[in-house]
Amino acid sequence: MEQIGYSLIDSSNANTEIQTWGNIPGQVPAIPSVIVLPNGDSVCAPTLSDYGVYKLIKRMVSDNKPSQWHRKTSESISYDTANNQVVVTYVYPGPANILPDSVTPLQIRKAMRQQSLLANVVSYIQNLSDDDRDEWEYMLTITPDNHIIQNAAISLGKTQNQINNLFRLAATL
Asked: In which region does residue 45 sit, left (phi positive, over 0), alpha (psi from -120 to 50) or beta (all else)?
């Protein structure tokens, strides 16, 4: 688990999380210099401690991302009494329908070569307008819904499922 910030919880109300600081994986902010409790009291230079029924504790993330292109769909929050911390658990969808958001031109070309599509796509690209050829040649990333990809798929008789699988393969290369 990774610390992502701090939480203020209300121990008199089932350890309800009242306020958070941080919450960005890879970045742990400093403890806030002042916190204002729900009862109106201000705490200057707080520490990880109890303030009556309120507690300032670490906020952790449990992130078991199945692959680089999975995107979290939700998160659950629980209070870990043994370690006195809030745990945010990211939830990911099953792998069957996961598509990468984008791949690099090199990745898609390698995938097309592996599936014996590259020569046909190159031939297709040569017949495009100058603007579309420039777009294809100078794209920094390629998305599954890119109009050139979609039109090439139609022209080459490929299904959307075949294009999705091409992008899944490309993301691994």
From this structure: left
Instruction: Give tens-digit pLDDT for 156-166.
Output: 999 988 999 99
Tokens linked to 102: 């984008």
Say how many C-beta atoms besides its own lie within 10 A of residue 93's C-beta: 13
Tokens read off for 143: 């998305």
Look up residue 160 and give its amino acid: Q
Contact 6, 17 (CB under 8 A): no
Query: Residue 64: what are its φ and ψ, rounded to 5°?
Result: -100, 70
Query: What backbone torsions phi and psi does residue 89 show, to the nearest 5 degrees?
Result: -110, 120
What is the spatial distance between Cα 24 and Cα 5, in angstroms, rounded to a whole number? 8
Query: pLDDT tens digit string along 128-149?
Result: 999 999 999 999 999 999 999 9
In angstroms, the CA 6 to CA 59 distance is: 5
User: What is the distance, to the nearest Å, from the Cα of residue 142 to the centroid of all Cα atoms in its chain?
Assistant: 18
Point out which residues pair with 89 in neighbouring strands. Answer: 62, 76
What's the longest Cα–Cα distance across the chain? 73
| CA dist., res. 12 & res. 80, Å (int) | 16
Nearest to 62 by CA among 95, 91, 28: 91
Question: Which of the four pLDDT bands, split at 50, 70 and 90, describes residue 68?
Answer: low
